[in-house]
Fold this protein.
Amino acid sequence: LNFESFIQGKSNEIALSYSKKVCEHVSRYNPLYVCGGVGLGKTHLLNAIGLELQSENNVMFISAERFMYHFIKSIKKNDMVNFKDFFRKSSVFIIDDIQFMSGKESLQEEFFHTFNSLMDKGSQIIISSDKSPMKLDRIQERIKSRLAGGLVVDIDVPDIDLKEKIIKKKIEEIQSQFKENINLSEDVIKYIASESKTNIRELIGVLNRVIAFSRV
């Protein structure tokens, strides 16, 4: 999941552009907050940033769920010092699906202090969520304020053109990986793109079913 494999369209071009800019100018846009619905490419962009920066930076990439797992584990082991050191030593801190912290007060407390510590030392922070900062449910106001204070970029639902590009790219990948010829007409590709209304994951799922049916 790198920048080369991310397919650009009108719905994601701003998010892609600033994801690349973060890699060129670390800490200039801080935090970078990428928001959008499920299956639209947020995690792909975060992965791409991490891969781009890992050679010259101490990159920490984690989901909010895994952050919570480490937090609870550290409390049980009475080892919060190591927990704090582990997460606060990174020069690039990437956390996926921040909305998972909704309602978890003690976890939010620790995240708030981790966030401030990283900002104070000039680390780049990149965050993803399914909502914009101020629309996050049951997240402390001070956290939402910090998140909104950076650069917030949206990924929207892909349009027909982008969906067609994604389908064609996926067909190329399948053909290359499995050494088989997949012959879908332009009409079929356009039909799949127009009928898939939600996200990219669903679109790929529909394509996979069509290919599977065509084999039998």
